[in-house]
Protein backbone atom coordinates (compact mmCIF):
# COMPACT_ATOMS: atom_id res chain seq x y z
CA UNK A 1 0.00 0.00 0.00
CA UNK A 2 1.17 3.52 -0.85
CA UNK A 3 0.58 6.79 0.97
CA UNK A 4 0.99 9.28 -1.84
CA UNK A 5 0.94 12.61 -0.03
CA UNK A 6 3.01 13.24 3.11
CA UNK A 7 4.34 16.65 4.23
CA UNK A 8 7.45 17.61 6.17
CA UNK A 9 6.01 21.12 6.54
CA UNK A 10 5.65 21.16 10.32
CA UNK A 11 9.22 20.17 11.05
CA UNK A 12 12.84 20.66 9.97
CA UNK A 13 14.30 19.32 6.73
CA UNK A 14 16.40 16.74 8.55
CA UNK A 15 16.89 13.00 8.20
CA UNK A 16 15.79 12.53 11.81
CA UNK A 17 12.42 14.17 11.14
CA UNK A 18 11.96 12.29 7.87
CA UNK A 19 12.62 9.00 9.63
CA UNK A 20 9.74 9.65 12.03
CA UNK A 21 7.44 9.38 8.99
CA UNK A 22 9.26 6.28 7.78
CA UNK A 23 8.76 4.58 11.16
CA UNK A 24 5.08 5.58 11.17
CA UNK A 25 4.63 4.07 7.71
CA UNK A 26 6.28 0.82 8.77
CA UNK A 27 4.05 0.67 11.84
CA UNK A 28 0.95 1.14 9.66
CA UNK A 29 2.08 -1.44 7.07
CA UNK A 30 2.57 1.17 4.36
CA UNK A 31 5.05 -0.16 1.79
CA UNK A 32 5.71 3.08 -0.11
CA UNK A 33 5.49 6.76 0.81
CA UNK A 34 5.64 9.92 -1.26
CA UNK A 35 7.25 12.79 0.63
CA UNK A 36 6.57 16.34 -0.50
CA UNK A 37 6.12 19.88 0.64
CA UNK A 38 4.14 22.83 -0.64
CA UNK A 39 6.08 25.11 -2.94
CA UNK A 40 5.11 27.99 -0.64
CA UNK A 41 7.71 26.68 1.82
CA UNK A 42 10.56 27.41 -0.58
CA UNK A 43 11.81 30.91 -1.34
CA UNK A 44 12.71 29.90 -4.90
CA UNK A 45 8.98 29.68 -5.69
CA UNK A 46 7.91 33.04 -4.26
CA UNK A 47 7.23 34.51 -7.71
CA UNK A 48 4.33 32.16 -8.36
CA UNK A 49 2.46 33.51 -5.30
CA UNK A 50 2.31 37.11 -6.47
CA UNK A 51 -1.47 37.00 -6.99
CA UNK A 52 -2.09 35.48 -3.55
CA UNK A 53 0.18 38.02 -1.85
CA UNK A 54 -1.44 40.99 -3.58
CA UNK A 55 -5.04 39.85 -3.12
CA UNK A 56 -5.24 40.49 0.63
CA UNK A 57 -2.99 41.68 3.44
CA UNK A 58 -3.82 38.69 5.63
CA UNK A 59 -2.76 36.34 2.83
CA UNK A 60 0.56 38.15 2.49
CA UNK A 61 1.15 37.76 6.22
CA UNK A 62 0.25 34.06 6.02
CA UNK A 63 2.56 33.51 3.04
CA UNK A 64 5.59 35.26 4.52
CA UNK A 65 5.37 33.02 7.59
CA UNK A 66 5.31 29.94 5.37
CA UNK A 67 8.02 30.92 2.87
CA UNK A 68 11.09 30.27 4.99
CA UNK A 69 13.42 27.64 3.51
CA UNK A 70 15.57 27.15 0.44
CA UNK A 71 14.74 24.22 -1.78
CA UNK A 72 18.45 23.42 -1.70
CA UNK A 73 18.01 22.20 1.88
CA UNK A 74 15.25 19.87 0.69
CA UNK A 75 17.45 18.60 -2.15
CA UNK A 76 20.27 17.87 0.32
CA UNK A 77 17.84 15.89 2.47
CA UNK A 78 16.68 13.92 -0.56
CA UNK A 79 20.25 13.08 -1.54
CA UNK A 80 21.04 11.92 1.98
CA UNK A 81 17.88 9.82 2.25
CA UNK A 82 18.53 8.15 -1.10
CA UNK A 83 22.00 7.15 0.11
CA UNK A 84 20.44 5.13 2.93
CA UNK A 85 18.51 1.88 2.90
CA UNK A 86 15.01 1.67 4.35
CA UNK A 87 12.58 -1.26 4.55
CA UNK A 88 10.01 0.76 2.58
CA UNK A 89 10.19 2.66 -0.71
CA UNK A 90 10.46 6.45 -0.42
CA UNK A 91 9.83 8.87 -3.28
CA UNK A 92 10.33 12.63 -3.12
CA UNK A 93 8.46 15.43 -4.85
CA UNK A 94 6.62 18.71 -4.50
CA UNK A 95 3.05 19.88 -4.10
CA UNK A 96 2.96 22.76 -6.55
CA UNK A 97 0.36 25.48 -5.99
CA UNK A 98 -0.92 25.87 -9.55
CA UNK A 99 -2.61 28.85 -11.12
CA UNK A 100 -2.94 29.20 -14.87
CA UNK A 101 -1.77 32.82 -14.69
CA UNK A 102 1.57 31.62 -13.32
CA UNK A 103 1.89 28.45 -15.38
CA UNK A 104 4.87 29.57 -17.43
CA UNK A 105 6.70 30.79 -14.33
CA UNK A 106 6.00 27.46 -12.65
CA UNK A 107 7.30 25.64 -15.71
CA UNK A 108 10.44 27.75 -15.80
CA UNK A 109 11.25 27.17 -12.11
CA UNK A 110 10.55 23.43 -12.25
CA UNK A 111 13.01 23.01 -15.13
CA UNK A 112 15.80 23.59 -12.60
CA UNK A 113 14.95 20.52 -10.53
CA UNK A 114 14.31 16.82 -10.89
CA UNK A 115 11.91 14.95 -8.62
CA UNK A 116 10.39 11.49 -8.51
CA UNK A 117 6.89 12.95 -8.87
CA UNK A 118 5.09 16.30 -8.99
CA UNK A 119 1.67 16.90 -7.48
CA UNK A 120 -0.38 19.79 -8.82
CA UNK A 121 -2.87 21.49 -6.52
CA UNK A 122 -5.31 24.38 -6.80
CA UNK A 123 -5.48 26.26 -3.49
CA UNK A 124 -6.91 29.59 -4.60
CA UNK A 125 -9.76 31.05 -6.63
CA UNK A 126 -9.37 34.60 -7.98
CA UNK A 127 -6.13 34.74 -6.00
CA UNK A 128 -8.02 34.05 -2.76
CA UNK A 129 -7.21 30.97 -0.68
CA UNK A 130 -10.39 28.93 -0.32
CA UNK A 131 -9.43 26.64 2.59
CA UNK A 132 -8.33 28.90 5.44
CA UNK A 133 -10.65 28.59 8.41
CA UNK A 134 -9.76 31.99 9.82
CA UNK A 135 -10.23 34.12 6.71
CA UNK A 136 -11.41 32.30 3.54
CA UNK A 137 -15.12 32.77 4.19
CA UNK A 138 -14.66 36.49 4.73
CA UNK A 139 -12.50 36.98 1.63
CA UNK A 140 -14.06 34.52 -0.80
CA UNK A 141 -17.09 32.47 0.15
CA UNK A 142 -19.18 35.32 1.57
CA UNK A 143 -18.29 37.66 -1.30
CA UNK A 144 -18.43 35.73 -4.57
CA UNK A 145 -21.15 33.66 -6.21
CA UNK A 146 -20.80 30.02 -5.14
CA UNK A 147 -21.44 28.64 -8.62
CA UNK A 148 -18.76 30.91 -10.07
CA UNK A 149 -16.26 29.85 -7.39
CA UNK A 150 -16.82 26.21 -8.30
CA UNK A 151 -16.63 26.86 -12.04
CA UNK A 152 -13.38 28.79 -11.68
CA UNK A 153 -11.90 26.15 -9.38
CA UNK A 154 -12.60 23.33 -11.81
CA UNK A 155 -11.43 25.40 -14.78
CA UNK A 156 -8.11 25.69 -12.99
CA UNK A 157 -8.04 21.96 -12.18
CA UNK A 158 -8.54 21.18 -15.86
CA UNK A 159 -5.80 23.61 -16.93
CA UNK A 160 -3.51 22.05 -14.33
CA UNK A 161 -4.15 18.64 -15.86
CA UNK A 162 -3.64 19.94 -19.39
CA UNK A 163 -0.32 21.58 -18.50
CA UNK A 164 1.67 18.31 -18.66
CA UNK A 165 3.63 19.45 -15.62
CA UNK A 166 2.35 16.92 -13.11
CA UNK A 167 2.06 13.22 -12.36
CA UNK A 168 -0.70 13.56 -9.76
CA UNK A 169 -3.60 15.87 -8.91
CA UNK A 170 -4.00 16.79 -5.24
CA UNK A 171 -7.41 16.59 -3.52
CA UNK A 172 -9.38 17.34 -6.72
CA UNK A 173 -12.73 18.09 -5.04
CA UNK A 174 -11.59 19.60 -1.75
CA UNK A 175 -13.29 22.87 -2.74
CA UNK A 176 -16.25 21.34 -0.86
CA UNK A 177 -14.42 21.42 2.50
CA UNK A 178 -16.75 23.96 4.17
CA UNK A 179 -19.87 22.05 3.03
CA UNK A 180 -20.73 24.84 0.62
CA UNK A 181 -22.02 23.53 -2.72
CA UNK A 182 -23.04 24.89 -6.12
CA UNK A 183 -26.59 24.88 -7.41
CA UNK A 184 -25.63 23.01 -10.59
CA UNK A 185 -24.84 19.32 -11.14
CA UNK A 186 -21.13 18.46 -11.16
CA UNK A 187 -21.48 15.16 -13.07
CA UNK A 188 -20.34 16.65 -16.37
CA UNK A 189 -17.32 18.21 -14.66
CA UNK A 190 -16.40 14.92 -12.97
CA UNK A 191 -16.60 13.07 -16.29
CA UNK A 192 -14.43 15.64 -18.02
CA UNK A 193 -11.78 15.37 -15.31
CA UNK A 194 -11.90 11.57 -15.42
CA UNK A 195 -11.45 11.50 -19.20
CA UNK A 196 -8.59 13.98 -19.01
CA UNK A 197 -6.87 11.95 -16.27
CA UNK A 198 -6.97 8.92 -18.57
CA UNK A 199 -5.70 10.92 -21.53
CA UNK A 200 -2.81 12.41 -19.53
CA UNK A 201 -2.12 9.26 -17.46
CA UNK A 202 -2.52 11.16 -14.19
CA UNK A 203 -3.23 9.93 -10.69
CA UNK A 204 -6.13 11.61 -8.92
CA UNK A 205 -5.95 11.59 -5.15
CA UNK A 206 -8.41 10.24 -2.69
CA UNK A 207 -7.18 12.63 -0.04
CA UNK A 208 -8.34 11.98 3.52
CA UNK A 209 -7.17 15.34 4.89
CA UNK A 210 -10.50 17.06 4.35
CA UNK A 211 -12.20 14.27 6.30
CA UNK A 212 -10.10 14.28 9.46
CA UNK A 213 -8.96 17.91 9.52
CA UNK A 214 -12.12 19.71 8.39
CA UNK A 215 -14.56 16.98 9.51
CA UNK A 216 -16.17 16.72 6.10
CA UNK A 217 -18.49 13.74 5.72
CA UNK A 218 -16.67 12.32 2.68
CA UNK A 219 -13.53 10.27 3.42
CA UNK A 220 -11.88 11.82 0.39
CA UNK A 221 -13.68 11.98 -2.94
CA UNK A 222 -17.44 12.38 -3.07
CA UNK A 223 -19.35 9.17 -3.79
CA UNK A 224 -20.38 10.46 -7.21
CA UNK A 225 -16.88 11.51 -8.24
CA UNK A 226 -15.33 8.31 -6.89
CA UNK A 227 -17.83 6.13 -8.76
CA UNK A 228 -17.11 7.87 -12.06
CA UNK A 229 -13.36 7.54 -11.62
CA UNK A 230 -13.59 3.85 -10.72
CA UNK A 231 -15.96 3.04 -13.57
CA UNK A 232 -13.64 4.71 -16.08
CA UNK A 233 -10.52 3.09 -14.65
CA UNK A 234 -8.77 6.28 -13.55
CA UNK A 235 -5.66 5.77 -11.41
CA UNK A 236 -6.41 6.76 -7.82
CA UNK A 237 -3.72 7.53 -5.25
CA UNK A 238 -4.60 7.14 -1.58
CA UNK A 239 -3.27 10.19 0.24
CA UNK A 240 -3.27 10.87 3.96
CA UNK A 241 -2.05 14.44 3.49
CA UNK A 242 -0.18 13.81 6.73
CA UNK A 243 1.50 16.86 8.27
CA UNK A 244 2.65 14.91 11.32
CA UNK A 245 3.99 11.33 11.53
CA UNK A 246 0.93 10.07 13.40
CA UNK A 247 -1.26 10.79 10.36
CA UNK A 248 0.61 8.58 7.89
CA UNK A 249 -1.94 6.18 6.39
CA UNK A 250 -4.72 7.81 8.42
CA UNK A 251 -8.22 6.55 7.56
CA UNK A 252 -7.01 4.30 4.74
CA UNK A 253 -9.31 1.60 6.11
CA UNK A 254 -12.26 3.72 4.88
CA UNK A 255 -11.30 3.20 1.25
CA UNK A 256 -13.59 0.51 -0.15
Describe this entry's structure for a reader.
By secondary structure, the protein is α/β, with parallel strands linked by helices. The chain has a single domain, classed as TIM Barrel (Alpha-Beta Barrel), CATH 3.20.20. Helices cover about 40% and strands about 15% of the residues. The protein is built from ten helices and nine strands. Strands 1-2-3-4-7-8-9 form a seven-stranded parallel beta sheet. Helix 7 packs parallel to helix 8 and helix 8 runs parallel beside helix 10. The longest helix has 17 residues. It starts with a strand and ends in a 17-residue tail after the last strand. The mean pLDDT is about 95.
Rg, Cα atoms, Å:
18 Å
What name does CATH use for the topology? Answer: TIM Barrel
* Major sheet: arrangement of strands: 1-2-3-4-7-8-9
Measured by DSSP, the beta-strand proportion falls in 15-25%
How would you name the oligomeric state of the polypeptide chains in this document?
Answer: single chain
Coarse morphology: globular
Low-confidence stretches: none
State the name of the first-level CATH class.
Alpha Beta
Strands, total number: 9
- Give me the strand/helix succession: EHEHHHEHEEEHHEHEHHE
Number of domain modules:
1
How many helices does DSSP assign? 10
Helix content estimate: 25-40%
The CATH architecture would be Alpha-Beta Barrel
What's the main sheet like?
Answer: 7 strands, parallel
CATH superfamily grouping: Metal-dependent hydrolases
What integer is the average pLDDT? 97
Amino acid sequence: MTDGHIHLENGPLTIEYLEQFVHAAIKNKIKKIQILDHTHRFIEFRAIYENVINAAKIQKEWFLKKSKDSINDYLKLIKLAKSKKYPIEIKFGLEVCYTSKKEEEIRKILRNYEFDFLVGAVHSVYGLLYDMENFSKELLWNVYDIDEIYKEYYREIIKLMESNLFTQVAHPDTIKLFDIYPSYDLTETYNKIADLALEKDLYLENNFGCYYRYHHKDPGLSKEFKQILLEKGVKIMLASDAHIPEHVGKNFELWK
